[in-house]
Amino acid sequence: MNTYETLLRFCNINDDFHEFTRRPFPYELNGKNVAVATDGRLLCVAKFGCTDAVQLAGTKIPNIAKVIPPEDCAGHLSLKSVYDALDKVPMKHDTECPECGGDGKVRFEYYCEADSTTHYHNFDCPYCAGIGFVDESKAPLIYDTYYSVRIDNQPFFPKYLKRLADILSSLDLTDAPYCVNTAMHTLKIETPEYIMLLSGCVENDDKDKNIEL
After folding, report:
1. Neighbours of 55 (CB within 10 A)
2. 127 and 169 assigned to the same domain
3. E strands of the chain, at which residues?
4. Same domain, yes or no, for 118 and 151?
5. Residue 208 pLDDT > 80
6. CA 7 to CA 53: how far, in whole Å?
7. b or e along 13-44 (b: 16 or more beta carbons within 10 Å of the residue's beta carbon)?
8. Which of 7, 125, 153, 180 shows its CA 20 to 30 Å from the CA of 116?
9. CATH number of the domain enclosing 150
10. pTM of the shown model
């Protein structure tokens, strides 16, 4: 993968609310021109920039420097140990309707050219017949959302940890330099080319549902 392809894997191209999460963008970080991509949970800084990153005119971008833990990545994160921990997380069927997001309703939009007005009407979702969920036979398997994977006493959602692990695997980073800042609830991985961050989650009160790495 080239730099742009790597950055794209940290984006959420379907985010309708935040332009900065849909595509990589150039950014000045500590006086250096870099490129950044994020979906709000995962974040990646390409230290040497990216020519394909697009400037976001008029878009308010969070202060990236404030979310990067200051610690050096002195530890080594074994990719095998991450996948082994993820294998211990139970899977379940995601029965929430993918079309209506569980609302049971979809919106029809019609633009009237005669008077330049837009009209909306809500209908029962045709995919789930308006009930908001689908039969398990149609539902994909996902990680049980009540479980977390703990790295250095900080829990992380399995869904996002799996995404990060797959990105590391594609970059052949089987033993990645890392640190965890529990005060910032953040896992940081740093290589000569990238800084990668994963935001953590709140620990489950049920200790049996916190998988130790």
Report:
1. 8
2. no
3. 25-29, 32-38, 42-46, 75-78, 91-93, 105-112, 117-124, 141-143, 148-151, 154-156, 175-181, 186-190, 194-199, 210-212
4. no
5. no
6. 9
7. eeeeebbbbbbbbbbebeeeebbbbbbebbbb
8. 125
9. 3.10.150.10
10. 0.83
